[in-house]
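sanity check this record:

:::
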Amino acid sequence: MMTIKSILRKKRDGEELNNEEIGSFIKSLIIGEVSDAQLGAMMMAIYINGLTEAETTHFTKYMINSGSTLSWPDEWIGRVVDKHSTGGVGDKISFSLIAVLTACSDVKIPMISGRSLGITGGTLDKLESIPGFKVGLTPSEILEGLRKNGCVLCGQTDDIVPADRLMYACRDETETVTNRNLINASIISKKAAEGLNALVLDVKFGAASTLGDVLEARVAAEDMVRAAHNVGIKARAFLTEMNDPIGRMVGNGLEIRETVEFLRWEDAGERTPDLLELVLTLGSHMLQMTNQVSSFSEGEQIIRQSLASKKALKAFENMLAFQGVPAEVAADLCEGKYDAVLPKATTTVVHHNGDHGYVARIDAAVIGHLVLELGGGRLKKTDKIDHAVGFELLKVVGDQVTLGDPWIVIHHNEPLSGSFVSRVQASLTTTKAISVRRNRVLEVVSQPGDEINPFH
């Protein structure tokens, strides 16, 4: 007779669970028949023994069906797409990406995002820097937002993939969060519950990533692409470098400001070439995967046009207004009235460079931890967020610097210690040799039969 104990015993001993056993466990979990101790035992058994590809697929499918799933009109089939990032420092790509894509095409993007934990900034926390922005939407509101604007950017509803919510809370308590199989099942189940046809995965490697080096990131990318394929989602994963902060601003409200500056397209491409690279590369693939364009070059061209024409900026403003931001506030923000709309730190300090040369690196991991210390992130879910604090980079990798040049602005609300300032300076590495900005995107991982050479 199959029981929760027999299922646990089997996984504890390193045996493979079958479809029926995994289904029984997830169904019992949802109706409250799995105790906290039993759930913790299962998470630890999986952490120690891992899951086979078949087990991961079974877990993913039962997690998807553990609650409600989003469904769309038949005429949208093939056009529903989303993007997921494994998290980084200064990662504000999603905001610009959904704006340019809905401005230049007929895609539908039901982007369900999360909050910050550790040095990884949270999409929802950044959006809540904008007065009135509503991250909690019902399924009917999500549908209305897609009909009206082509996109929403919101949090996970209580009835979407409830099994994942229960399992993640337990993984957090039992130090089993880092198991790659459970991470993949968690990510893909939530994206599949959105009713997606296509998915782009931004898989980061480097000092400020959760995955470490490029080899580990490549394995993770292959696993996620395979997991998506096994539940019927077309997916591509991009390996992107995360040693230096993305763009020039790090911190919740500051990253919203940089997003609007980018969408206003006033020298934004020159000032933040890495942000432009990621938007063009990921965006052109999302357009091609949903049959909106026939080539990546065509995709990049219409994205640039949506930026230059300010259509992308207007799409961003429309999304803000739909999700609760007063129309006049959304308009002011998109007109560049940042101080009137976004939270502002009480103090800013400009830090100066101590040598001649070229910027070789700005350590994103150090900057991310320093933002945490300023109050701009959280170490546990109950921590409060200070939306005003962060860093503004006046110099980035490849820029020439001379002795005494201002290179970074610290936005803070509490006094800074000498140690804090020293660590800010230590995050900067300069070299006498000319330093060249590296491309963020290293390679793409695709599903069998998905020919995408060259990828950008």
User: Anything to note?
Assistant: The mean pLDDT is 92. The longest strand covers residues 198-205.
